[in-house]
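Most newcomers find our protein records easier to grasp once they have seen one. Sequence and backbone structure share a record, each on its own labelled line. To make this concrete, we reproduce a full record directly below:
***
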Amino acid sequence: MSSSEEQIAPSVRPQSLMFSFLGIYVLGRGTAVHSGSVIDVFARLGVSEEAVRSTLARMVKRDLLVRHRRGRKVYLGLTSHAAQVLADGRRRVWETGVVNRSFDGTWTLVGFSLPDSRRSTRHDLRSRLVWDGFGPLQSGLWIAPGMRDVTEILAPLDLGDSVTVLTARALAPTEAADLVRKAFDIEQIAGRYLAFLARWDTGRPLPSAPDDLARQLLLHTDWLQLVRQDPHLPAEHLPAGWPAIRAEQVFHALAHEYEPRAGKLADAVLDELAL
């Protein structure tokens, strides 16, 4: 990573930026984009051509992108799997909200026991549970507030009777606040939002970025990484002045500010193929 890239996109992986790009400029449009024009967009972020090509190739291999050839040009479109992943990300960004104000006291519990021979499956399961807002209450038992349908995240793992899913309510002497404290690192979650605010809640965020297209992609990437890690905990069990509320306001304001100019720049750069 070059020094200019470090200034513009510190600690941001090209794949994370790619998900933001695809979610904004490919999802729902019925188009594929020429790989060369994607490289041009990512050059604004200091991401090398080699890194972009490598990222695209990996996403094709993982059944997230599909190639369409027209003459000498290669265009990349979304697979149905990628469209589902990106649509879920879009819902989290624009619809779910960062604070759970509708908690009714119900918790979803996922218990599992997997041998060391299935260590990679255990890792995948934990990653999927984190993505779906679960936290580890104790060894092999994860919880999330509200009713959660975990069928989709469990199905690909072939867990059989190694997993148990239940719903429950806290009973004395256990309090819901105790569950939040035990299963979730509140200080760490708050710290991530405070870091977002330090970067974006300023008079002129990211002055080193060349234009609003670069800022838009970085903003969306930062925000999606935040909400992906947010378990959407009940508002009544969060500390006063919870920084996620201000962070969400900042994200929405900047996203709407960047959108017009970013869209015009993307239209000028992107070479698209109607599917």
Q: What stands out?
A: The mean pLDDT is 91. The beta strands are 31-34, 65-70, 73-78, 106-112, 135-138, 141-145, 163-169, 272-274.
